[in-house]
């Protein structure tokens, strides 16, 4: 034990950089000998002369960066350091005898609060490390600034991905000390962001803190509201999906006789499935909430499959027996499509000598064939699919961005 203290004294002589004070190595050596050997300092005991008194633990959370946000595991990885402070009744000295205002010493030599991350993603471990120091002042005030990479659990809501915001809590608590023994006292009103380094995918929208000293153990919760930067996902997922949706509609512009019409529909449908797979790999397997982007892609896949079915039926109709007459419903659809296109209807000659102006519209006889009906299917399907595509795109995009 004596050898350890001698090594520590050499360390202090070389590395003490806090205050340039006029004191000798001998004075510092005598001081540490008195504190840790003469007074038999015990770091396993709560540093209060009166053990019924509470220790007020000053806490400040300095947030540095978001290293990673894993949506699949629901894990926030961030870097921060804590500013912790308390008073140790057994680490005080007479300044007139030892004219040293403050000095540093390894954290392993003094009592430290068992201040731990309660909602950590990994197993419990002590803050800091053996090479960390604490700062000790003449009045017994101890300052400890452990730096750490924290991995915390985070509840996810991917409904509005990639325009989503996530709320993550970083919860610290006293693990073995009760509130009447050690209570948490935040020294600032919020998370300190002075040294924060921005992240390329996430931005911090707001922060807050809440301390609870009413329970059996003192707890402080730091809340981060982080908002995703959507530009990457807009350019790599959303815009390509929208463009595929437009291509999906254009299948009804191709002539029915075109041999590539069916393969075109199949290719577009497969493209949607590829993007659905791409989105699913970036989202957690969560049944509580489903991404609206996934719903949008599913709608487009359904439209693509429906377009494929319509195109198949249309090709079948195109090659029907031309001698077989269209029924009244089919003729009405052809007539409707032509009126929308502002084309004149073809009218057969009438047996009597009535003029065309006196012909009752309900008694016109139209000479429509199956090719005309196939073209009418193209026209009606084009506008039907366009309306569904535009409405679904507008509604989903508004819900994702506003929600």
List keywords for this structure.
2 domains, 7-stranded mixed beta sheet, 4-stranded antiparallel beta sheet, alpha+beta, extracellular ligand-gated monoatomic ion channel activity, 7 helices, 403 residues, Acetylcholine Binding Protein, Chain: A, transmembrane, membrane, Neuro-gated_channel_TM_sf, Methane Monooxygenase Hydroxylase, Chain G, domain 1, rod-shaped, disordered N terminus
Commentary on this structure:
The protein is about 35% helix and about 20% strand. It is α+β, with helices and mostly antiparallel strands. It has 2 domains: about 45-230, Acetylcholine Binding Protein, Chain: A, CATH 2.70.170; about 230-350 and about 365-400, Methane Monooxygenase Hydroxylase, Chain G, domain 1, CATH 1.20.58.390. The relative contact order is 0.10. The two termini are about 65 Å apart. It holds the Pfam family Neur_chan_memb. It is a multi-pass membrane protein.
Write the layout of secondary structure elements.
Elements: H1 2-15, H2 25-38, E1 55-70, E2 75-87, E3 102-106, E4 115-117, E5 133-137, E6 141-144, E7 147-153, E8 165-174, E9 182-186, E10 202-212, E11 219-228, H3 231-249, H4 261-280, H5 292-318, H6 328-340, H7 370-402
